[in-house]
Design a protein that fits this description.
The protein has helices at residues 20-29, 64-81, 104-118, 123-130; strands at 31-35, 38-44, 52-56, 89-95. The chain is built from 4 helices and 4 strands.
Amino acid sequence: MSAALPKRLRLGRASRLKQARDFARVRREGQRFVCGCLIANSRTLPAGTPARLGVVVSRKVGNAVMRSRARRLLRESFRLHQLELAQPLDLVLVARQSIARHGFGEVEKDFLTTMKRAGLLNAERGVQSAE
């Protein structure tokens, strides 16, 4: 009976960018894409390595509560769609000021649109998720 349950999607310590040099490397060597309430910097990794996420939220977004909410929304968007990525990558998501006015649905839509434009989603799975 447990075999029918889908695999639980997690975003553990191995899936996070933590050091400043990792953030700098993604920005320096990767590509940059802007859509709606977020900016995505991505750098492809060799096959077999896990995808990693880093989130940056400036004080311009708002107070601590608003910044924490923005971080949670961006992390959740990545967590739900991490298996749809075409290849492993380091991804840094930067929240723009407009994220303070958006709900999860709008943030997720901007995330998927950005990933599709960048060609980072699997073709068959990415189309289904965006609809």
